[in-house]
Amino acid sequence: EITAEQLEEIRKELFYGYQHRWHDHKSERTRFILKSRQIGATYYFAWEAFEDAIITGDNQIFLSASR
Fold it and tell me: Pfam families recorded for this chain (predicted)?
């Protein structure tokens, strides 16, 4: 079984400082992010959905589109 502590350790190794700041504001209803291309936003938010699914047991749906 994967624990929240294990997920936190993995997250610390995988992500950059600015992505950690996104995580710090995870509980806020709205997050505004002015982003450029290829900064790992899709990867980070997919991780966040995965993390939520593991911790809560809730199903997650994640859609990503590009042109």
Answer: Terminase_6N
pTM, two decimals, is 0.80
Q: Is 29 left (phi over 0), alpha (psi -120 to 50) or beta?
A: alpha
Is residue 36 a part of any domain in this protein?
Answer: yes
Range of the domain at 21: 4-56
Contact 36, 11 (CB under 8 A): no
Render pLDDT for 12-30 as a digit per residue (tens, 0 to 9).
Answer: 999 999 999 999 999 999 9
Total number of domains constituting the chain: 1
Is 63 part of a structural domain of the chain? Answer: no
